[in-house]
Amino acid sequence: MHVMVIGAAGMIGRKLVEKFALEAGALGYDIGKLTLVDVIEPPVPPSLSAIATPLALDLSKDGAAEKLVALRPGVIFHLAAIVSGEAEADFDKGYQVNLDGTRALFEAIRHEGLREPYIPRLIFASSIAVFGQPFPDKIGDTFFTTPLTSYGTQKAICELLLADYSRRDIFDGVGIRLPTICVRPGKPNKAASGFFSNILREPLAGQEAVLPVDEDVRHWFASPRSAVGFFVHAARMDTSLIGPRRNLTMPGLSALVGEEIEALRRVAGEKAVKLIRRKPDPVIRSIVSGWPTDFDARRASELGFKAETNFDEIIRIHIEDELGGQI
Amino acid sequence: MHVMVIGAAGMIGRKLVEKFALEAGALGYDIGKLTLVDVIEPPVPPSLSAIATPLALDLSKDGAAEKLVALRPGVIFHLAAIVSGEAEADFDKGYQVNLDGTRALFEAIRHEGLREPYIPRLIFASSIAVFGQPFPDKIGDTFFTTPLTSYGTQKAICELLLADYSRRDIFDGVGIRLPTICVRPGKPNKAASGFFSNILREPLAGQEAVLPVDEDVRHWFASPRSAVGFFVHAARMDTSLIGPRRNLTMPGLSALVGEEIEALRRVAGEKAVKLIRRKPDPVIRSIVSGWPTDFDARRASELGFKAETNFDEIIRIHIEDELGGQI
């Protein structure tokens, strides 16, 4: 099977490719060919060098989608996007990449299929940003998408397109609404959501971290390992079980910041917790207060998608996957 | 105020313009200028000839939206669309007109506003086709949009764009999800929904009509007069009351085909009812079974939108507005 990952240089894209490097049969079939695409040339794990081709290409540029689809991959993971903050700051760029780039990909598949029959599996990275407040206590699977950002709007539009193109058998699509990924590896960044990961990752590495909100802030999480699991499962699963409602809120863990900290104390001790410096930031507090806090992701759970059920597990996964198993 | 109606040659567009002809103050302010746009040159009621300019123009063609927006109307009614059946049969045309045409209009407004401040009121005709089965008994205001047609998908996408552009103060948008309009004036057409109107309009005119489904079929209705009322109210209302959820399911009447027939009997007698010929059509029955049957349109009602509450009223409106008050 020829598998294509668009957005292969991003955090989840890289982890997905690493998963293929570690487990040849991760998708339930042999990957005979792997095409890794991103705006910068994505890294290729050495063990995949025989089958993988990296491509530096911007999906939103004229002809780019056609070039990719002409390779006729059987499975396409589409993870490429301008992130939320940038899509909000740059209206044109956000719509161009997140909406027009995705639509160009969908259209290229349609035209390729008109030329010669072709119905790839397509897994699309969506986001809980498709939802906008006010929310019920738990957001159910039939709650409407009323995004309050252009990023969320672009993702919600692509979800609608994905469902329509799948209904017409142009491709076999699954939209994956990701929770906030925690613990996000790497350096602290300026994303408003960064502290959720920072207050675990930095203390685990013996570094200070800033907590800008109170401990009673609730949010919706899954580990990077779960995120990869979602994409792998979506590529393997029997999509005839999904029906026409192709976009699924992934399972996750609803937890308080205080619960994150308690889990850190259990796993890494008081010394780690002492590295969290409280520095209230009303701007971040206000942004975060508009985010979803809890979901009843029943459909995805019934369809076999799995995430963590407590924060100890999320921290242990970070220690295993990023810190070589020890702190 | 300069008012523009795009789709002014369609059934509701014409009735909206007739409303302006009958009631100078319908919108709560003077219409100083009226631009009437459609792919064919729309009719101009004689009493509006001093202020109205008809324009034959296809919104989906390059430069068309810019041409309209350069006139800087303060209120834009956007009713232009390819209908459901055609959008399903012709993928390219449906997306080109219903999605790209609408987006071109929105983008033209954004660019005009960047050139010189400009935030028109924009009222967009959406549809209950944004919903797809299975449904709850009553579809509430927070139920998700999972259209099962390309037409419904295009409308749902435009709703998302409308909300995002309004949130960014590019325009002041209101999306109006219309019920099935009944009694639709004119000749019987081949739309699968046509019989809902045919079985009233034709007998009222002394003609036979075919009923292709059973009397226990339930559906969601409003009169053409209510539809015009929705648009007028959306143009007059205080949009600060709506908040960011800019797309509203309009109130309507949930009724059985049997209730339509009983109302016809009450208003026009047994003679009229006898003109309904039962001719079951399994194809139409199957299409209709996928449509919404009932809504709890609480938000729109609270915001002052009004529709009929029984079928006698719907029939009387048809007699008043289309048959000169007598049958």
Characterise this structure:
Chains A, B: InterPro entries: DenD, Epimerase_deHydtase, NAD(P)-bd_dom_sf. Chains A, B: GO terms for molecular function: oxidoreductase activity. The structure is a homodimer of 327-residue chains. The first copy, chain A, has 11 helices and 12 strands. Chain A has 2 domains: 2-179 and 223-249, 3-Layer(aba) Sandwich (Rossmann fold), CATH 3.40.50; 194-220 and 253-293 and 305-322, UDP-galactose 4-epimerase, domain 1, CATH 3.90.25. In chain A, strand 5 (121-127), helix 5 and strand 6 (172-178) form a beta-alpha-beta unit. In chain A, the strands form 3 sheets. A 7-stranded parallel β-sheet of chain A has the order 3-2-1-4-5-6-10, sandwiched between helices. In chain A, strands 7-9-11 form a 3-stranded mixed β-sheet. Chain A is 40% helix and 17% strand. The longest helix of chain A has 25 residues, at 91-115. By secondary structure, chain A is an alpha/beta fold. The A-B interface holds A 91, 110, 132, 136, 142-148, 150, 153, 156-157, 160-161, 163-164, 167-168, 244-245 and B 91, 110, 132, 136, 142-148, 150, 153, 156-157, 160-161, 163-164, 167-168, 244-245.
